[in-house]
Each structure stands twice: as structure tokens, then as C-alpha cells.
Amino acid sequence: MSYANGRLIHDADSHLMEPVDCLDPYFEKRLLSRFRALPVMEALRAEWAASIDAQLAQHGDDAFRADADDNILLRKNYEAQGVWDRHDRSHAMDVLGFASQLVFTTRCLGNFGLDQGDDMELCYAAADAHNRMITDFCSVDRRLLPVAYVPLEDFGRSLATAKLAIELGAKALMVPSLCPQHHSPSHVALDPVWAVAQEAGIPVVLHVGGERKMNPVYKENGLPPVPDFHGGDDNFTSVSYMPIPEAAMQTLATLIFDGVFDRFPDLKWGAIELGANWVPGWMRAMDSAAHAFIRNEERLQKLSAKPSEIVRRQFRAAPYPHEDAGWIIRNAGEEIAMFSSDFPHIEGGRNPLKRFDETLQGLPESAVKAFYSGNF
What we know:
Blueprint: E1 10-15, H1 29-36, H2 39-47, H3 49-57, H4 62-66, H5 86-96, E2 100-104, H6 120-138, E3 144-149, H7 155-168, E4 172-174, H8 191-200, E5 204-207, H9 238-241, H10 246-257, H11 260-263, E6 269-272, H12 279-293, H13 298-301, H14 307-314, E7 315-317, H15 325-332, H16 352-360, H17 365-374
Parallel strand pairs: 1-2, 2-3, 3-4, 4-5, 5-6, 6-7
């Protein structure tokens, strides 16, 4: 019996754990050396390549593979089943029993910081290479739904990247929650990007990795360093966890207030691995803002409904397993929250179904079904 145990479950968040050179075969050849020369890429190869390769090599060992099924949610990151071998991932889906799974990268989530730089040619080339890689990986199993990345810095290039991603078979487009350098994410010149996503019937999602990072000066407190999930201090700690949804809240509110959601009423938006505890208060804050400023702002007068109602119509969010999903649903509505495993990352926990089921107790069956499948 699978982990899902016969239940209909769609997974809104899962990942690859890719080697450092994962994009090389997919990169435009004339730009590959420029990409490999980036300081972030040189550092990855120098510090991590050997250890990553060694961990991935374990998956070829018969003894290591023998109990992989029994440890499907216990082995994490590079030790987990199917993190880079596509056929192993297909088998992992059999063991998990999920009906489908959005698949994100891990190392490419922030597009290597190129969105915030000056080399737009390389920025979009890296995104296109990523999109070729992840759609190729997922092509072996229709349950694996690849998430492409689209920078928003250059209007024409963004449209071209979105079109290519859809042609490659992307089932969602990820955009950064961090504001582009020179214009709003709600700029009307980005409407063609939203139009092609709506026409293709795929959502636009924000994901952790594309957000505004905590000011590192907060760490300078005169106390010993605080370890993160992985034992270092580069991933999230209790303090750096707090600003994770800040940029998402601002970006999504801007998109709603500036009418993007209304101009594309059939386009769905998602916040993945950004938590959802913030959603009920954010909805109320937007309603308050609309009420306070509607006299002076024509854009608010043109909205099709209250911001919170637009959210329920078009927005979905995936709570962390440590959050009280039942509380979120009771305060935001049954239409918004959806299940995610974060497989194979440590943050997803060893038994996400158990943790979510406990918080969903007392909700109507319609809300539980919406959480595990309907809202997806």
C-alpha cells in the first residue's frame, strides 16, 4: 500500500536535488562558459560538487536501494529516492501514491541572482536552460508536473521564455516574488506573459527562493550562531523564517490592486513553500486598504470584487506542515489552502499527512477534500 493509502492527493510542492552541472547540457553553448564563470557557480563546484556527486552515486548501490521504498519519507535531500534519476522518481511516485506532483528545482530557485544583475542575456539563458532541464526530467511520467521559471526583468524576453516553457511542456510558471529592478510586476507590458499562461490553462506561482532575504545584520547579536535544519546557518532559522512571505504579500497585493487578476480572471496564482499563516491577515489588510483608499484610487473602484473575494477566486497557498492548516482554512475560506509534501526536503517532515490530518479535524469533508485535491 502506498503512503497515500488510496486517498486522492495532489502534491503542490516537490523538488529535484540536482548536481552542480545540471544545466550544462541544456545551456546555450555560446553562453555556457560565461555561466560557469559566475562566482556563485565556481563556489558551488569548489565547495559542493564532490560531496553531491558522492551522495548521488549511492543510488547505484544495490544495498542502498534495497530499503529505499521503506524509507521514502525518512531519507532526505540527496539521499532520497528519485531526486535526480527520473525513473527512480517515477517509482517514488508509486510508493508515495500521489496523483500528481508539482516539481521544482532546488539549486536554481533564485536563478543564481541573475535577475538582480545587469546581464539579461545570461539571466534568461539560465532560465531557459532550467526549463529545458526540468521539463525533460518530468517527461517520463505524466504525474510529474514541471514548474518553469520566468524572470520578469525584460518584457520581451519574459514573454519569449514563457512561450518556450509552455512549448516544452511546463505545467506551471514560477515568477520571483521579489520586485523586478525597474518596474512593477503588475506593469501592463507583462500582460502578454499572463495571457499565455491563462491561454495554456496553467498557474503562475511564487516559491521560496525568489523572495527578499532577511538583512544579515540581524544575525549580529553577540551570541553564538544558530543552526538551521541542515546544521549550518545558510538555510532558515526562526528569525530568518519571519520575512519569507513579505515580498509575496506585496507582489500579490500589487497584482490584485492594479487589476492583473481581474484582467485575467481565469488565471490561477499560487504561493508555494511560503507558508500560509499570513494569508487570513493579508486578506483582511487588503480589504482594509481598499476600503480606506477607494475614494481616491480609480483602480480600486474598478475591481470586480473585494480583494479577499478575488483571492478566494484565483489564489491558492500551501501551508507548511508545522502550520495549523485547519485554522488557516477557517479564517481564509475553504478555497485557498492545499497540500504539499516538500519532498524530499527536510522541511517537509517525515509524515506530512499525519500532521495535516491532525489540524484538519472538525472541518467539513468538503474542506478536507478541497485541501488534498480540489484546490490543486
